[in-house]
Amino acid sequence: MRILIAVAFSGLNLLNLLWFVAALRTALADAGRDGWGTAATVASAVFGGLSLLLFAVVAALAHSIAAGNPALTSGLNGFAWALLVLTAFPRAMLIMSGVFGLWRAGLISNAFFSAGVVAVVLGVLGGTTWMRGGVWAPDGVYSRFVMPVLLLVWVIAVGRVLNTRNAAARTGW
After folding, report:
1. Is a pLDDT exceeding 90 seen at residue 170?
2. If you count Cβ atoms within 10 Å of the first and of the last residue's Cβ in the chain, which end, N or C, has fewer?
3. What is the pLDDT of residues 138-151, one digit of tens each?
4. 143, 108, 109, 111: which is closest to 126 by C-alpha?
5. ∠63-68-74 over CA atoms, to 5°?
6. Per residue in 3-26, is it b (16+ CB within 10 Å) or e — as a string?
7. In the predicted model, what is the mean pLDDT of the chain?
8. Rounded to whole angstroms, how far apart are CA atoms 44 and 51?
């Protein structure tokens, strides 16, 4: 039951991330960087799709659809870990599009940009966590803790940037 509750909260958090990216895309469009905003939107859509598929597999396993069939259970579990690792690439692209777009728009400093590039590199490294055990495994510390914290820190930092800039008057909303 705890896993099913966690899946529901994860889905809500994913919706919040997608709304955040919509705000980022709007800020980049206002700054004349529509391309980077579009890249952020696409990256968030891919990340969201892979994450929803991951949530569905985890929820299905928790709901015991594969009870009595250890081969199916093992296969679905391996598929879930592979999905978790593969979410590293759109996550890194999401960070990259935001950092590069904000930097090109002149909304962040060179130091913030450098920290963002480090975050992108760390994000891409998350796609290499295929070891069978330890820190660098799909169920290891890097995939389960470092990558989500990296995205959370990025969202907080970019959120502060978006909150401190002067909002343009938009008539379309």
Report:
1. no
2. C
3. 888 998 899 999 99
4. 143
5. 75
6. eeeebeebeeebeebeebbeebbb
7. 89
8. 10
- Nearest-angstrom CA–CA distance, 152 and 30: 24
The packing angle between helices 34-62 and 88-104, to 10°, is 160
Q: Which two tokens stand for residue 98?
A: 């935001």
Token pair 């709304």 is found at 19
DSSP string, 67-95: TT-HHHHHHHHHHHHHHHHHTHHHHHHHH
Q: Which residue has the tokens 């490294």?
A: 125
Cβ-contact 119, 154 below 8 angstroms? yes
**Could you tell me the two tokens for 112?**
């913030």
Asked if 100 and 27 count as a contact pair (C-beta separation under 8 A), the reply is: no
